[in-house]
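@here heads up, posting the sequence + SMILES for the copper (II) ion run so it's all in one place. Ping me if the SMILES looks off, I pulled it from an old spreadsheet.
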Amino acid sequence: MKILKDKVAKLSFVALLITMTAAMFYAPTASAHGEKSQAAFMRMRTIHWFDLNWSKDEVAVNDTMTLTGKFYVFQGWPETVDKPEVSFLNVGIPGPVFIRAGSWIGGQLVPRSVSLELGETYEFKVLLKARRPGDWHVHAMMNVQGGGPIIGPGKWVTVTGSMSNFVNPVTTLTGETIDLEHYNLDNTYFWHGLWYAIGLLWVAYWARKPLFIPRSIAVESGKANTLITALDRKVTLGFAVGTIAIVAASMGSTNDKYPITTPLQAGLLRGMKTIELPVATVKVKVEDATYRVPGRAMQMTLTLTNNGDSAVRLGEFNTAGVRFLDPAVSEDESGYPDDLLAEEGLTVSDNSPLAPGQSRTVQVTASDAAWEVYRLADLIYDPDSRFAGLLFFYDASGNRQMVTVDAPLIPTFI
Amino acid sequence: MSASQSAVRSRAEAVKVSRTFDWLILFTLFFVVLGGYHIHYMLTGGDWDFWTDWKDRRLWVTVAPIVSITFPAAVQACLWYRYRLPFGAVVCILGLLLGEWINRYLNFWGWTYFPVNFCFPSNLFPGAIVLDAVLLLSGSLTVTAVVGGLAYGLLFYPGNWPIIAPLHVPVEYNGMMMTLADLQGYHYVRTGTPEYIRMVEKGTLRTFGKDVAPVSAFFSGFVSIIIYFLWHFFGKWFAQTTFVSSEDF
Ligand SMILES: [Cu+2]
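bot reply: prediction finished. Complex structure tokens:
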């Protein structure tokens, strides 16, 4: 019994130590490839990122690059995810390997959360300044309150140089230019050091005399009051008065040194500027859609009707950032990430130009390993097995129009 | 060894053993408090303590003292009633801040590269020293709770102001005004902490104009009084000796 007790005691001590260590080593998680583990319907039916462009593949520390593009806030936003009424344009990188020098939606700076409207398309830009060398996967990303992070496509970018050269100069409204990377650091260490020393002094004062056993004996024999001497009281009073004096004096001198301070700024930004895409003149009706598990291909039967005044061809199907192109119609010139680009992934049974006023039913196949790699095929295991995406049509002079599709998906396993 | 035989043979030896015990107990107390208190504070104070762009005049001022007076109250109860030692609160803060600094320096900075001037911990010393001093000078639970608890809440913001004031200097950034602290939060990307999670400057204390920090501090002080009482009794309960049967000695 005694041995068992000892064992339990020992084990609980070990557990305590582990928890302590775990707590000390807590670090905010820096996620890199969460994109694949996110439910497929989240990626297909929430924010559709398109026209993405990473301005550079390689950046030196202190240099900047941009991630630009557009996103369409899907009209058929899933019921299970909160609407993007409070959203934050983020960037998916492993911690501050870049600093976000700026981010804009429709030309408006968005350091705070914004309200987005379903069915609208927005233009965005993120300006990144390289800080830490390495190969980093840089993702477009939108955080939605109640919905979590919605991770868009990512591309590898190499940062070269040395982090010790990184500087972050900022000019304040009081006319001072500071380096935000190191600003206020000495001041922070000074005050923390000073107060820690005062705290140690306080404990040391008491620890210079015998602590636990003799004092416990004295307390138990009713002589507790003899343990506190007149000197103890004086010293204590000194610590209390000294503490309040230091706080008051340091607060006063701080206010003299920084007469102008403002509260933290917060609050939702509304009324983001949207972009008007050319009105789609092609009507698309999804007759049926199946996903062939062994072939890693999605097949749709679409009835296309051209109500416009120029002949069009289907050039691209984009879902969850994966782009399936028909090379005869559309090619990527932006350096889109390879793993997300199926340059010959789109096959249309009859992709001859669809003349104005004409209607045609076609078989469209989107096939690529990306279905598996990006776990989009997992869609068939989702509670609401629907797919969604963007179709891009082009006319002979290169005008593009975007049509969204949203329909049930039936898997076939043979 | 039978219980009637003593382990020491002289007074000098007894003093030496007693002193050894002092250091052993103090050392153990320090690290156990460090562990428990650190976890507690990370779970309850969390982001308010982690990031400068959470250290506002309303919620940080209110939350930090309330959730951090817990362990000091409990450890004070144990050390005061058993040993008449008045350093319970300061020992807790010494432990907590050592743990915080190790965490911030090694993990936030060393591992994830957030600048230390963005993720340093809050200073809790002034309140803790006064809390210990009031306990010794009054020797009373009620006075310590009321006077000490209130002081703990009130001293928090001014005790941190010299450290955070430089970060509350405004900047104009691409046509918007923000503080340097806001800018740190914007620049140093936290993928998992979107801006809307940030709970700052929210509340109903709008009628006090811009002097909201003192009001929040008073409110925090009042709640700290209640939390002090509560955790004082937890501490007292834990410091009981009824768990140990006298036969073992
Ligand atoms: Cu990635």
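MO: Chain B has ten helices and two strands.
MO: One more: Residues 13-240 of chain B form a domain with the particulate methane monooxygenase, chain B fold (CATH 1.20.1450.10).
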